[in-house]
């Protein structure tokens, strides 16, 4: 394979960084995509942190307590649990029109509390039935750049290729997606032409929650693979930031998640290569790098916004017009 | 939605008292739900409740324990409540609290001088650090219209890493091998007369609440902040420099939280930073602010309530209740508050009333979560 | 289509009280009434937006349940709202296909655009299908709404105050479309309170007053006076004595240019003089720079060039407050959105435009007692009905809110008053009160700049009239020799030279 030789030749630091970021980013990618789905129909779900926790703990319970051997089934159970939590959230904010910020935070808190409580007796127990890695073709030596790109478990392929393409198609190439976008931009307009605002908001908030739950389940079924308290460790919040960075576009969500993952794998790379932080010791670099993903995510949000403001241009992609605003029909 | 002769009608605006009542009713309803859940999972909520009461009011230690927890919770809650007056959500008070403590420890372990001078310098450093921590989100919100929720929140994680780094890394106390924390600040704030563990720090949140109450009652600054919160365009119409005002108020909220970190640090027995320094006081503070709405007196009441729950949770950990359940409860209470808030938007009136408006029955005041649930079905579109 | 005994109440107030209404195929049926008479509520019920508390609706003889807009469309009823229900960041083609079961499930932009072109050819109305809604003029947006309703096979078309936002030529085009649709056998129901256009275009008309039907009759033979009496219940005319004021300019604009919110030029080299003790009426269709004109004068919007003086002082670069301190009041176009804080108590709203002055504050301290007593005085003066000055402004009715703002600004405006659409959305009584306030200011020597898109109001109130079109002043007339037709032409952008010729 020519391309393999070419790639092997360029032992490119950037490529290996991004490549090794893929598994670390998957959780964020799934949660960010879930959050984006909800936001596209105008529902801001700040509870991602809790949804990841719930998805993870129920996948763990399925494997360790219910004797589920198939990781796929465990994944589905985790997703279903998160969907149920998402349904409670959705009923509160869509049917009852409660404040999305408050209930979202409640979901974050409650979800983390619940999952930690349920996981108490399962701390550190390794999960045996994990997803097995499959190759997209060819065989390569361990640690090569190509391996980092072409050798993963099926969830990675689904999350990075199938899901973004399918969502892009849904949003921009179907009647249903067009109606969805209208609900997020201007629910009164969508309502006036007979699109059910409540149904699409409920549906996509719950579906989004299931995807975020899949992120949590993926963590314990492949990435770690074991339960530990506070399993999301801020990934839920990063996912929300990634949605903003991505401008609510499925493809850009992949890029945002990889950016975050690259910052994580920078730590491993740095340790492996023995880098040090100037004026500090080698262990300090690790501490410093653990702050980096959040700082970089923050800057990734600020730079486009600042550039648009300074350049006095209307942003090419803006938030859905009705994001986080409850919709009442009989307004007078 | 009609129930026999009664029906629910959405009202255009609510007065503050009804809104406060329904919020509290929502929180109480949520607590009842928590009790029910405890009952269903085989725990006795009444026993837990009485154990909690005993733990708190059974001794001076219990009351002081609550007061000790109330300080950080009140400080963060006051900051959040101030920002909520302007409809700004500062969710980063945990981070501002932590960097306040971080700055205070930095000054405290490196500065020589008399105790009062060092403590003053620590407080100033904490105020500056808290404000600095929210500077970027505040600038972005004020001048670039970037929503502050995610930006303030992301900085919490940076602050946690920074504190961990300082405790395990550059300021680590190398003499103490077992406990991983920074070196100790040799000074504490003066004791409160007649108390075993409390310092004058307890007075600070009350003084700040009093000051804020005065600002909003009888100054143009408070008037302007409320105007921005109510309608930013009207604020522009009134010649208020909205962006600048948002920036300064956000900085003040950060400063208050930062000062809270210093107060926590200079309590006897604390005096040093470790990785578990903040038990997510910012989140507790956020719930207090949500419960109190715009009222600073409400913040004091709500803060004491949440601090009692927090302390009871700590004490009851030995009796089969974990700190995780407390956070789970927070989630349910917050949902109850949000639903209570929405219930205030409805009014129960007689279905056969002829045009007249019946003032008697306010929805939600009666039934907490359940009442609010029914209340909103009128607006439901299917 | 027929409606029988339709009743609907909001918050205990009956908007419609057992109303009967019927319209035939092939007719243009006008629905007349004052603001708050229930015209829009009735149409919203017909279109499935509101659900009637009681009453039956039948289309083509068959009784229909209209629980939501989809069912109304199925029944062949489509409505074009006064505030368009279009999704701004989406294209014309997307908006037309939105929520429509006949849109193909999987579809590309190109396919949508092709389909849209075909509809436009069939119906005979055209808009660029690839344009985003926010790029279109108001008239074009209205056409998109009509196209959308007709493409879905609506046989009853309801238009809610369709001409309120249109220029005269655009309105003429719309009337042609309405006539041709009726000629094709459709029912066109249109809501209006402009008597002349109703008499011009409709076959039959129905008058509503306070939620009750007054009359349904053929339009032929009806007179404007008769209809006005039916609408308002009694005849009421404000006597306005027009003045000719000479002497020094009070408010003076020289070569003022400004941009709108999108950064596009909205005012071009505007020269305008308002003398003390006169009302200068600004005629024009909404969106031709009037809003920006008011905002530039009050410093809410920066002037790109030119100068503004008040009694000889250059106030171009003054702050918002300095201008208010000079005695310039401003009744903003969007009273609720800009001039009030609905969540704040009435007392706080009463001092919104002068709380910083020495009357209420020293340094940062605000004198509560003075604010309260001022608010009570204002409430009395403006005859605002409220429980107390501590009640939230949002609890006031719309008319009371407007009266509060108008009076407040009249008190601020010692020297000049900028009134943008001061009576828009008010019922007859409230409108007369606001007009009386403005006239009183004039009589006390205040320079009044009054913007309105209601030409009748401009003709009634103004001592001099300036016409604006696309950010330019097309001509200035004395009230005495102002000619309706010529002003109408200028409003539509026709040749100023020709129109301004004496």
Q: Spans of chain B of 5+ residues with little confidence (pLDDT < 50)?
A: 352-382
What is the CATH fold-level name of chain A? ABC transporter involved in vitamin B12 uptake, BtuC
Give the overall shape of chain B: globular
Structure annotation, total helices of chain A: 13
H/E series of chain A: HHHHHEHEHHHHHHH
User: How many individual domains of chain A?
Assistant: 1
**Helix content range of chain A:** 55-70%
Strand adjacency order, main sheet of chain B:
1-2-3
Name of the level-1 CATH class of chain A: Mainly Alpha
Strand content of chain B: under 5%
Mean pLDDT score of chain A, rounded? 85
Looking at CATH, which topology of the domain at 68-320 in chain B would you report? ABC transporter involved in vitamin B12 uptake, BtuC
Number of strands of chain B: 3
Coarse morphology of chain A? globular
Q: How would you sum up the major sheet of chain B?
A: 3 strands, antiparallel
Using brief descriptors, characterize the structure shown.
heterotrimer; A: 332 residues; mainly alpha; ABC transporter involved in vitamin B12 uptake, BtuC; two-stranded antiparallel ribbon; 13 helices; 2 strands; 70% helix; globular; C: 502 residues; alpha/beta; Rossmann fold; 2 domains; 6-stranded mixed beta sheet
Describe this structure in words.
The complex is a heterotrimer of chains A (332), B (382) and C (502). Chain A has helices spanning 2-9, 13-40, 48-64, 71-95, 100-119, 145-150, 154-173, 175-185, 187-192, 197-223, 235-245, 250-273, 282-310, and strands at residues 134-135, 151-152. Chain A has 332 residues and is mostly helical. Chain A has one domain (16-122, 153-310): ABC transporter involved in vitamin B12 uptake, BtuC. Chain B has a domain at 68-320: Orthogonal Bundle (ABC transporter involved in vitamin B12 uptake, BtuC). Chain B has a 3-stranded antiparallel β-sheet, with no helix packed on it. The longest helix of chain B is centred in the N-terminal third of the chain and has 26 residues, at 60-85. Chain B is globular, with a radius of gyration of 23 Å. Residues 352-382 of chain B have low confidence and may be disordered. Chain C is of the alpha/beta class and 502 residues long. Chain C folds into 2 domains: 2-232, Rossmann fold, CATH 3.40.50.300; 249-500, 3-Layer(aba) Sandwich (Rossmann fold), CATH 3.40.50. Helix content of chain C is 34%, strand content 25%. In chain C, the strands form 5 sheets. In chain C, strands 6-7-8-3-9-10 form a 6-stranded mixed β-sheet, sandwiched between helices. In chain C, strand 4 (54-59) and strand 5 form a beta hairpin. Chain C is globular. At the B-C interface, helix 9 and helix 10 of B face helix 10 and strand 18 of C.
